Amino acid sequence: MTAETRSSMIASVLVIGMILALFVTLVINPIYGADFYFVFLPIAEDLWLGNATLYVDTNGYFNPAHAMLYWMLLALPPVSVANAIHFIGTLILLFAIVYLWQTYTERSIFYAFFALLGLYTIDHLIRGQMDVIAVFGVVLAYWATREEKPYLLGLGATLAVIKPTSLVLPLLLIAWHIRTWSFADIGKASLIPILSIVATIAIFGFEWIPNLLNLVATGSPVDGLSALSIYDMASVINLPSLIPAVISIIFAIGVLAKPDLSAERFAFALVANVLASTYVAGYHFVVLIPAILCMRHKWMVIIAWLLSLLPLLRLVSTDTFDLEYLILLLPMYVASVLLWQMMHETSPESDNPALV
Asked: Exposed (0-12), middle (13-18) or buried (19+): which is 62, by Cβ within 10 Å?
């Protein structure tokens, strides 16, 4: 056994030991995320018991049906075990996002540390949300597209669409790129998404489809929630609604006008989608992690991290409503940095491919 192999084995044992220790700690002393404990898990339990119909008696759940399959699986073990699985799984996927993305940016651990340590990550973990699953999915889909792995592209896309409004633009970039793939490869990429639809129909019946369409037609899923989009911010400061609409169109055009798959442009698509979305919450900003990893200078990353802390100002101010909109400064800043970088010749990618 070589010294390198021995070191790898020791590191693996230590990591597994740390995961097991964290798992046991979370089971014995659980800290439940609000969305995990009060929204997703109770709905999954009601569906198992036959006390609810998806999109009819599941108030608070607006994600695609196949995402509920994940929560129904988590509803099987004791709640403390399910909570530990979800929490540790989220941490693992966060590191997996960085690992896959570093394939194309090769940034130092400094960048990864501050990208992962933003307040948005803590917010996501505290809530017990599932955006990290979607972000991992879109990064996996991006990696699989560039490496021409159609089955993994299908898996990534299936995971990504559990948060469809947050990832439309990057998924469109991928769809545009694979238009040149063979029919066989497109078929392979479509296999897992099709199987997920079949699984939801087998479990929830065909009626979930008209129920979802009716839910969308009768009102926005974000009605009554504290929306923090640029549209709402414009309303607060008495700007015409046309202005944020034009900004969103400009962002979309900026992404789709040159639909290549360079890391910077794909990351810009992730950020642009956040700014164009009609509903933004702090934990959604985990989608910015790949974009922050594309930044070329450490001081840029530090500024992004400091901007992620702006929601803490609500702890020292009573004017919380207006301060909430300060969180939008983070994606605005990240978008501006990436736009500036794309206007200059140096690419952050070590392989510098031109995937057009």
From this structure: middle
Please give the angle made by the CA atoms of 141, 145 and 150, to the nearest 5 degrees: 85
d(CA 305, CA 303): 5
Nearest to 116 by CA among 94, 137, 132, 131: 94
Q: Between the CA of residue 245 and those of 140, 242, 284, 325, what are the distances in Å?
A: 30, 5, 20, 17
Of 94, 40, 70, which is closest to residue 286 (Cα–Cα)? 94
pLDDT, tens only, 153-197:
999 999 999 988 888 889 989 998 999 999 999 999 999 999 999
Tens digits of residue pLDDT in 108-135: 899 999 999 999 999 999 999 999 999 9
- Supply the DSSP symbol for 36: I
Query: Would you mind telling me the total number of residues written for the chain in this entry?
Result: 356
Which residue reads 């599932």 in tokens? 130
Place of tokens 């087998």: 202
Residue 240 to residue 100: CA distance in whole angstroms: 41
What is the identity of the amino acid at 60? Answer: G
Is 200:208 a contact under the CB 8 Å cutoff? yes
- Tokens, residue 113: 């540390």
Q: How far apart are CA 146 and CA 80, in angstroms?
A: 39
Q: Which two tokens stand for residue 181?
A: 């793939």
Assigned token pair, 66: 């196949």
Matching residue, tokens 């979607």: 134
